[in-house]
Design a protein that fits this description.
- By secondary structure, this protein is an alpha/beta fold.
- The protein is built from 6 helices and 4 strands.
- A 4-stranded parallel sheet has the order 2-1-3-4.
- Strand 1, helix 1 (21-25) and strand 2 form a beta-alpha-beta unit.
- It is globular and about 50 Å long.
Length: 168
């Protein structure tokens, strides 16, 4: 189907999305995902309220259970996004890239690692990386689970097991 290349961009902030018109204008199929399962076209104040309310600290939701941890659904959702992209008739069947920064960088790496259909990866300053670094005398990655006051709340065997499972 021509030379159309899907390009999957992970963005995980709580806000509306505008798409990647630059890449789309150059012939790429683009997809941005929101990891929170909320509509992407609401008023900006709704996202602000979610950020300071229901989604505040989401990166710690169920952090002591690897089967219920917030990022389990997120990682699986990234794979489903790839499933969607490769199902499009415009996809050339060969070229599939993923990119992201911060949490999106982490999700890009994880998705590329879990899905062999992805053959191009760009990750900038990936979060969720070396999260236990603080326990070993080095800086740990966002969300700084074991830094400062967090250490007393999360330094336990169940959280360490979960983090070990999800750390990029």
């Amino acid at each position: 189907m021509g030379n159309i290349r899907p390009f999957f961009r992970c963005r995980v902030q709580v806000f509306d999305y505008s798409g990647d018109l630059g890449k789309a204008g150059r012939g790429a199929i683009t997809l941005q995902i929101g990891i929170h399962g909320i509509p992407i076209d609401m008023a900006p104040e709704v996202y602000a309220n979610l950020t300071s309310g229901a989604l505040n600290g989401y990166w710690n939701f169920n952090i002591s259970d690897k089967d219920l941890y917030y990022y389990r659904r997120v990682y699986l959702g990234c794979i489903r996004a790839v499933d969607f992209l490769v199902s499009l008739p415009q996809y050339d069947g060969q070229n599939l890239g993923i990119q992201g920064g911060s949490q999106g960088g982490a999700l890009a790496i994880v998705t590329a690692a879990l899905d062999p259909r992805i053959n191009y990866l760009t990750a900038m300053y990936p979060a969720l990386s070396d999260m236990t670094g603080y326990l070993h005398g080095r800086a740990g990655g966002w969300p700084h689970v074991f830094a400062g006051n967090n250490l007393q709340n999360f330094n336990n065997p169940k959280t360490l097991e979960t983090i070990g499972y999800y750390d990029v």
